[in-house]
Design goal:
Elements lengths: L1 E11 L5 E11 L4 E4 L6 H8 L7 E6 L2 E2 L4 H10 E4 L12 H11 L4 H14 L15 H13 L5 E5 L7 H16 L3 E6 L2 H7 L2 E6 L2 E7 H5 L2 H6 L6 H11 L10 H14 L1
Parallel strand pairs: 3-8, 3-9, 6-7, 7-8
Antiparallel strand pairs: 1-2, 1-4, 4-5, 9-10
């Protein structure tokens, strides 16, 4: 089921530089989508169109099959359905405490104080940061700020959550904690869309990928299928994920029936090979 769709989007930066050139993108409900492209390709610009922050020169965005408008009421409804978390959490955090920051969205929707408190509590618990509720936002670590920014979007209860380079700047443990939080959100019914230039991360985490270059989506489909296409990857200035490349080689040699999706799958193969020699 298609939940969010970009149709023939065109957008130009000041000076006439094309950022989006007749771009098409489909987000399917319950399918993690990674939008892949090199740094500076315009992935953030695309996300800002998908939640109505930017208005295209041409084309339209559909939510649940309905064309979205740009009046104040229409944008409020749009952002109720589609949340956005920017790469730099400091661009979104502005309140004195974590709880105040997360409450901003629900209050802006006109919800009562009781409903807002409930949503804030649920969002903080979903991100496992309830213990930070009264912490000043300027005293948070980088990873904590990321999770607070996501909690602020989650409190709006969006159908789709857009995340711009969500793992950028995080160490391994911070990435693990963030991805576990995103998986919990997904289990609650939120569809995840993220941008990244990290093909290895996209292959491990996403169900589907969209290769983005020159203001267009070159191809969109299941991660293993799209990321195995060397010609498409070259056009997007990307390389194949190492795990996928090794898996394809092992499959061609008859050593694997199913492509490995994470490091554990590959380690299992190596252990079987070691035992057989």
């Amino acid at each position: 089921m298609t939940i969010l769709q970009a149709c023939d989007l065109t957008y130009h930066y000041q000076g006439g530089v094309a950022a989006l050139s007749g771009l098409d993108l489909t987000v399917r409900k319950g399918r993690r989508l990674a939008i892949l492209g090199p740094n500076g390709a315009g992935k953030t610009t695309l996300l800002l169109h998908l939640n109505g922050t930017l208005r295209p020169s041409a084309g339209q965005v559909l939510c649940n099959g309905q064309s979205m408008g740009y009046s104040r009421d229409a944008l409020t409804d749009w952002r109720r359905q589609v949340g956005l978390v920017l790469q730099d959490a400091d661009d979104q955090l502005f309140a004195a405490s974590v709880a105040e920051d997360v409450s901003f969205g629900p209050l802006n929707l006109g919800l009562s104080e009781d409903e807002t408190r409930q949503r804030v509590a649920e969002a903080l618990e979903a991100l496992r940061i309830a213990n930070l509720a009264e912490r000043p936002t300027h005293m948070l670590s980088f990873g904590q700020k990321k999770r607070v920014a996501i909690a602020g979007a989650v409190a709006m209860r969006p159908d789709v959550l857009l995340l711009d380079e969500p793992t950028a700047g995080l160490d391994h443990l911070g990435t693990v904690h963030l991805l576990l939080a995103l998986e919990r959100l997904e289990a609650l019914g939120t569809t995840l869309v993220l941008t990244t230039h990290d093909v290895d991360f996209a292959y491990r985490f996403a169900h589907d990928v969209a290769l983005f270059a020159d203001g267009k989506v070159l191809a969109q489909g299941e991660a293993a299928e799209v990321l195995a296409d060397q010609s498409l990857l070259k056009q997007a200035h990307l390389k194949a994920p190492l795990l996928l490349a090794l898996g394809l080689k092992a499959k061609a040699l008859g050593l694997l029936d199913v492509l490995p999706k994470d490091q554990g799958d590959l380690e299992g193969l190596l252990e079987r090979l070691a035992r057989s020699t």
